[in-house]
Each structure stands twice: as structure tokens, then as C-alpha cells.
Amino acid sequence: MSDLNLLLEIRSYFLSQVASNVQEILKQERPRRDLGFGDDAILKNIWEEYCIQEQFEEGDFFNEYENHIRILILKEIEELPNTIQKLLIYIGRLEFQKRETYEDEEQVIGYANNFNCIAILKILNESASRYRNADIKKYENLDIPEEDNQIED
Known about the structure:
Elements: H1 3-28, H2 46-55, H3 62-79, H4 82-99, H5 105-130, H6 134-140
């Protein structure tokens, strides 16, 4: 195994850990009006709502969910040991250098954070697309009437 492959495996492990931590945080977060929940929501947490968005159709508030999740991801990355943060930036730097040159270290760190954020979002999205529980099954079985687009006579 090459050194780079070993570093990529270590990175993958920590990205999965961050994704798992964020998922647990989302399971603890109660519905919020700014993310589109109503008072009669069947879904009990933000994770369930995000899963519905992934499994069925992105709603009007999908971007707000992703922005909220990105903030959580960045906070979790900041809580990793400094050495692991440096590893994530190093891998991000390698990816960045494949695409363009840089002069500003902050630009590289920003790119690396975005690169890692996208990778963690992918892990979360894959998990959300498969996640099932009783609340999601109830939601799926709701008989929600479609809007009547026909003009009445």
C-alpha cells in the first residue's frame, strides 16, 4: 500500500466519523420553523426530514437543510485533533493542485474544507437515502392530496 493510499484511508475513516456525528446531532435536533416544519409534523427530527428530502423529492427548504448540515460538518471538523485537521487540509491541497495553482494559503484551506464537506455530505446523503424508521414509513403512507390544478366550471 502506498503512503498516499494509507493517508486516503485514514481520511476516509475520519470523514465517516464526522458524518456519523453529524447524523446523531441531526437526530437530536427538533423540528424548526426556519427549516420548513409545521406544527403537525409526523417527523420528529431534522434527520428524518432530511431523509424524506433525499428519498422522495427535494422540498422548498432543501438548501436550508444542506447549509445547516454544512455548518455542523465544519464544527465537527474543527473539533478533530489538529493532526487530523492537517491531514484533511493536505489531501484537499493535493486535490486543489490537480485543478489550479494557488497563492493564498487561506484559499487552499477554504478549498480543502469545501472538498471535505462535499465528501461528508455524500456520505450523509447515501445514508439518508437508505434510512427507514416508523416515522418515515408513516410519512410515506400519508394520503397527501395533490394540488388541484384544474379550473372548476
